[in-house]
Amino acid sequence: MKVLLCGGSGLVGRVMLKVFNDEYQQHSVLGTYNNNYYNGLIKIDFLDSNSLEEKIKEINPDVCISNIAERQNETCENQWNKIKKINIDIPYNLSVVCKKLNIFLVHISTDYVYDGQVTPFSPESLTNPLQNYGISKLIAEQRIKSVFNNKNDYLILRVPVLYSDQLRSLEESAVPLIIKKVMNKVETFKEDNFSIRRPVYVEDFCRFIIETVEKRNLSGVHCFY
């Protein structure tokens, strides 16, 4: 199996490449980057539909994993035009190309598409995002589903907060970011004492994706917990 990992330089991307190379060497994986180059990654313009199609034709993958996103809350709340391009336009463009070239698409979404009121969540749970990040990710899901006629041709995974011990900075995960805020004695911040999060270990999440794609035993929209 040949896999194109779209977004290989962030936390999930780096870990997934490592898991592929360490544990699933029977598969070929190629990752992409935008600004942060990392071990053998290639650069693709996902906003240029024609260039994107030509590049993916050249690579000829069996599976594309859509892992490009802007999740920083401040950016999402204040720069809608930027996050629209990253969180909506890029996965939509990728889905169009994958549909045309008959490539299975795995899109990583988020539990931020829910409002958190009624848990646990399922794919049938009412979506009601409260922040721009969740809104943008839900729109991306809807646009992806509008492209494919058959839900067996794609997989959307709604994941909770992810954590790992392979961080380059505390900002790469919401879990250590809280620790950074606590350690910062200059700035003040507010946190509630009632929210319940269910962090998922990145390595486990990556193995789940790889083994699911191997067997193609999931399709459509699913929640990962």
Provide tags for this entry.
225 residues, alpha/beta, 7 helices
Secondary structural class = alpha/beta
Number of helices: 7
The biggest sheet amounts to: 7 strands, parallel
General shape: globular
Strand order of the largest sheet: 3-2-1-4-5-6-9
Oligomeric state, counting identical vs distinct chains: single chain
> How many beta strands in the DSSP annotation?
9
> Unreliable segments (pLDDT under 50, ≥5 consecutive)?
none
Rg, Å, rounded:
17 Å
Determine the mean pLDDT: 89
Measured between the Cα atoms of the first and last residue, the distance is 26 Å
Q: Helical amount among residues, as a percent range?
A: 40-55%
How do the helices and strands follow one another from N- to C-terminus? EHEEHEHHEHEEHEHE
* Strand content bin: 15-25%
Topology:
Blueprint: E1 2-6, H1 11-23, E2 28-33, E3 42-43, H2 49-59, E4 63-66, H3 73-78, H4 80-101, E5 104-110, H5 132-147, E6 154-159, E7 162-163, H6 174-183, E8 200-201, H7 202-215, E9 220-223
Parallel strand pairs: 1-2, 1-4, 2-3, 4-5, 5-6, 6-9, 7-8
